[in-house]
Amino acid sequence: MKKLVLITLMSLQTIAVSAQQDPYLWLEEVDGVKAMEFVKTNNTKTFDQLKKNTKYSQLYNQSLTIINSKARIVYPSVTGEYVYNFWQDDQHVRGIWRRMLKSNYDKGATQWETLLDVDALANKEGKKWVFHGATPLYPGNGLYLISLSNGGGDANEIREFDVRTQQFVPNGITFPEAKSNIQYVDENTLLVATDFGPGTLTTSGYPKNVKLWKRGTPLSEAKVLLEGDPTDVFNSGTVYRDNDKSYIIINKSLSFYTRKLYWYSNQELRAIPLPEDATLEGIKFGKALVQLKSDWEINQKIYTQGSLLAIDFEGLMQGNFAIDVLFKPTAVESLESVVTTKKWVVINVLNNVKSEVFLLGKGKDKWYQTKVSAPAFGTINIVSANRESDDFYFTFENFLEPTSLYEFSAQNTTPKKVQGLPAFFEADKYQVEQYMARSTDGKEVPYFIISSKSTVRNGKNPTLLYGYGGFEVSMQPFYSGAMGALWLEQGGIYVLANIRGGGEFGPAWHQAGLKEKRQIVYDDFTAIAKDLIQRNITSPEHLGIMGGSNGGLLMGVAFTQHPELYNAVVCQVPLLDMQRYNKLLAGASWMGEYGNPDLPEEWKYIQNYSPYQNVKKGMKYPEVFFMTSTRDDRVHPGHARKMAAKMQDMGYKIYYYENVEGGHGGSSTNEQRAQWNALQYTYLLEKLKSN
């Protein structure tokens, strides 16, 4: 026992010492003078290198034209009788929030009522405001909570806005910048989870406590519904509305994937008896809509992982489990999303990485299912559902078919195409194929490849492999005018990986890559790269890879473990120092995905792949392009900064670009987005395309 304690203490000491010896910790000072000099110097070097390429201006102009296109889809958000929309273009760089009657929108009208001009507000207040959405009071009387971020980070300032007067409400509700969750219960009552002062945030930097606050009273006197623990992730409250009935549900987030749910009713907070890893997708017809992330045995019956259940809510709270199975996935299916309308539960299902939509209705004695006759062989996203009617809007897209917006109406069950993007490249010249690569454990992992029909498999094709592999996020077919015009039409091939860690095939596909099993995610990605080479589609000289956030970590692991496979790496807003990730910004919230590096038994497997600890001198690494944002308050820019500096000091040439605003998305304005696109595709063409 003494020996075990001694080993543990020595391991902890090793971790502490190695962190203290990091000579690049100064780059974690987000706005530090020395750190910003590093950013400015490297930005200038990258601009000087890439902008001298004649392709840069062409790619920038093409990208900006696509992004600013007036023919873009006007995405609807329906509340009551109005459609609301946020719009950015060359005249509205930071954007306008606007509305029109739904009846006019459905007729194709173009005359909008501008509610909030974010450019004018930013100029007036001297802030780099980024619009992050509007939450309505329901039933609506014109009041909204507007979220504004200064620079595009996750932290928002909240202000109350009245669409009837087109003004912020004088002496209305306001909350200072924080990573908050705030919702109306009614006009004078709000659920508030925010930074209430010292000791009220979790170690992840999110709210620990949830309060019920009455307008006009001091926030300090608000009723505390939940006082969480520092180790929680993000505690919050949600108002679920089921026709005329409302349910106040409090979420105590134990980890990124587990939670305890409570129902606040009659001045009492009561625990909801559900598995901690199950998710509450809504409440409809008095039924809790619950998605299972693992098998659940109740009343001597096993309900399988990935299923959607309807459980009588009142009975559930009394310990009586009246359960209907609404969806049970096959081996190639997963539940992507659930929304509710006036009388439907609408589910979006992935079937072998292709979308299908079903309507679930409640009969007198049982549920029934109807498949929506949506387009096939692509990706569907439900963009707006109105609980006051059975109409909803969804988009359909695939790699070669521009995104189209459809409306499903209760009066016409065949979806009606409302709008569609123009084609930004000649899709007829290209083809989409789906292949399987065999990973190290024998599992077959799918990927999509988009290439010219005239492609010759000679190993010389410039090929870009994109991956993510985490957090149960599915990589689905998508239409990108920028990717098509800036990459495919330049002679490139695009590949999308469906590796484990994602959600393409349900919870098990994700859980296969958690914590100590993480290496299989990277092995899957490597298997696809090798399969592309084996098929003679490309070769290491012409193969590049790209990924962001968790996908940025994937990039770091890929080039440190297999530098021989790649000639270009675009590593965007990445995690890279996995020894300190849980100490930086929201990093602690992801320990459910990666593990806790402060625990020796978990650091033991994390250290085997952490890019920052595994980069070495004397290797033949590709010239990596690191891209990040100063204002990213989710993944700390210090990850990219430190890795870039360390590699430079080892003698490696790298590219580095840090946008000074933009948050985790990297960019705030269309000009910044076009610049981001032009930089990365210029780099890729330089590295991968034969002269």
TrEMBL record:
InterPro entries given in the database record? AB_hydrolase_fold, Pept_S9A_N, Peptidase_S9_cat, Peptidase_S9A, Prolyl_oligopep/macrocyclase
Its Gene Ontology cellular component terms are: cytosol
Signal found in the keyword field: yes
The Peptidase S9A N-terminal domain is annotated at 20-417
Q: Which UniProt keywords apply?
A: Hydrolase, Protease, Serine protease, Signal
Residues in Peptidase S9 prolyl oligopeptidase catalytic domain copies: 487-690
Q: GO annotations under biological process? A: proteolysis
Q: Spell out the molecular function terms from Gene Ontology.
A: oligopeptidase activity; serine-type endopeptidase activity
Provide an example Pfam family for this protein: Peptidase_S9
Q: Report the superkingdom from the record.
A: Bacteria
Leader sequence residues: 1-19
Return the Gene3D superfamilies for the record: alpha/beta hydrolase, Prolyl oligopeptidase, N-terminal domain
PANTHER family, alphabetically? PROLYL ENDOPEPTIDASE
This protein is called S9 family peptidase
Q: What is the originating organism of this protein?
A: Flavobacterium stagni
